[in-house]
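Components:
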Amino acid sequence: MEYVNPEDKEVITLQQTITALPDMTNAQQIIDREKSAATSIISYAIDFTRELREKVSNICEASSYRTYADMKGAFDFIINCTKQEGEVIVKIIYFVSDLRVRWHTSLQVNISDDGKTAEVEGYIIVDNKTGFSYENVELGFAIFELPSAPAYATTGYGAPSEATGQEATFPAALRQEMLGELDRLRSVQPKSGLKRTQRMKNLML
Amino acid sequence: MKANVPTRKKIKLNWFKAKCEFTIERKIEIQYTANNVSSNKLTWDTIVKYVLIKQGDLINKDIPSNSPMTLYKNNMPFLFLNTAESSGTKINSENMIDDDILVDDDIVNITEGDAKVNYEDASNPKEQIEVRTRFDKISRKIMIENKLNNDIELTLDFKQTKDVTFVKSEPEPSLIEEPNYKYDIKIGSESKSSVLLELQAKIVTRITKIRPEFLKPPKSE
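Structure:
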């Protein structure tokens, strides 16, 4: 939590945050039903006009991407306030750790005519495969490797490879929990080689 | 860095723009075994790597390995490759085989040495292993052809092994770091250059034979 007016820090304090997430089983059923409906629309529709086709394909595409991580939750904040009345503006800052937001860098090297110097242009490409749009969001970029598991091979920088059908139906929260468990199991098993440090590197210097 | 990241979309963010020095490193690595050193013809690959020497703002940038890298000349892309490791001062591309540099390695001459014969015990007591060891003098000519329309510089790196050792060469190596013999070679556009290597190869043959005392005497007529 960030205080817009620093003096408000003396007046209000955050006591508790309550996070309410939808039930995973019910949410998964709703997602499956939506996907099935989307498939039916595409299979049985005779033809759409150009404008309608775009709208329908957008809806169907959105449902095919949807996972449990796209379900909306709710936060309740219990705030202690000593101020009798008036307005206090605070900013809530939260960290999104959705593995479906991936990034990679790309370099464009323009070589000069003499072939001895070059102008390098670096780009960061962010691929958001979640159901949410993030407006004016602060981006941080980290390099690390995820433990690979047979069901969902991982590549890239801290993100899984292209979403497969199986992956799409796999609840993201459950997946993260299992990845953590896998890591824990590896740490207690005897190792054949040395573990890599997998240090994160900040690129935005 | 702040940005709008819409759902199910890819966004491209400008990260940096900087000038740097650009070099191309080419290398031919040659190593023989007792089996292939006497082959009539061998071919080798030229390994090419593009190196960007960081300057200015670029020094602070750490480029992740396997990032796509596109080389442009005259505003046209000419090579698509990936980055390899990036150090504090350099950004290296991945190693690639240079298809425009051809390397032919032909035998010139073989002078077989006298074989020295030793015997070793075999697992079967009635047999023995005949070990024939000889040292052959072998000359090979390595012809490098530059098919590019510009001059190139490359390093030919001959590595001697326990079976194939260096005797002499024409030209002389530019640098000797045993067991490596390195030649810095400049080749003009659409030109050829050659290196003649004189080598000594240890050739060992093993044949299992029945011991003479167990050989059946020839049948008398």
